[in-house]
Amino acid sequence: MVMKAKRTANFRLVILNGKAYMEKYKKSFHSRDINTLWGIVQVLRRYPGKLPDLDLMFDCLDWPAVKAIDYQGPNATSPPPLFCYSGNNSTLDIVFPDWSFWGWPEINIKPWNILLEELKEGNKRTKWKDRYPYAYWKGNPTVAPTRRDLMKCNVSDKQDWNARLYAQDWKTETRKGFQHSNLANQCTYRYKIYIEGQAWSVSEKYILACDSVTLLIKPIYYDFFTRSLVPMQHYWPVKETDKCRSIKFAVDWGNNHKQKVQDIGKAASKFILEDLRMDYVYDYMFHLLNEYAKLLRYKPIIPPKAVELCLETMACAADGVGRKFMMDSMVKTASDTGPCTMPPLFDPLNLQAFHREREASIKEVEMWEKKFWENQPK
């Protein structure tokens, strides 16, 4: 069953007697595979001897690969268990925390435990009421049609949709030493836009952490924590099909209802700063791997081409910023306590009610927006 997932996997991971072994199939983009494996080694250091034996496949792309429709019908086989960074309602991949929690050296994004503190300080520098009263986005617009469409909402001499949008040229930024891409310095607008790229985007947690109101353009994908977010509590929902008018309405409404939208921004950053601390990320990883291991029906063995993942050899193989980020994100000592206790699962009725409430909130905002534009002069 596990080997069925090899088709798209970047690596196979086996944990046996508390030690990790990895067989690489293909290189990932940048250091995604290395940083993900580094994070798993940190879980083993944090909770030594507590993870059971397991055997898994991991795909390091932005998008999920296991389509639910391929495993339906009377003659359907069971889907392969494949770990990935994101999922959607049409896929069955097992969603795992992304590599950037341990840093992204290629574009100088620091490990989450370091960056989280910098984002806290960045929030304090400019109070919400003193921030630019517009919606801000900075990123690579070339990776997806929806982002290219967003750029049409930028301010021009003919129209102002309340958006200030900037294309990030990573080649130039890298050459100049990342002078204009410090995330902690980007909490200067009242509103920040989140939009997916080719699929889910790693930028979401950085945007939500800023105290600014996140204008969330309707996503297709989710990562391991975003399904906990509630519209009008943690973010403002924006329509994907009519972005410019939807963004303008959100900003105009927010600037006329300042306390309400400040509360939304504060709730989002509180969620990120408190509930997405590395302590809880590691606990999530521990529980996910532990529950996955319970489903195995065989004793894992070390693949013939696998290498043991050792803290020292992984760090020594890295250099420059990559090695620094490893040192900055390393778990220094084992935890004095066990992982947190997982809350009980949603029962089907409560889960359905949760989804209905979310949809009702989004529809309410869409109704406000519709009435607003209907009442505008033709």
TrEMBL record:
SMART domains: CAP10. Residues 50-299 form the Glycosyl transferase CAP10 domain. Pfam families: Glyco_transf_90. This is Lipopolysaccharide-modifying protein. The lineage of its organism: Eukaryota, Viridiplantae, Streptophyta, Embryophyta, Tracheophyta.
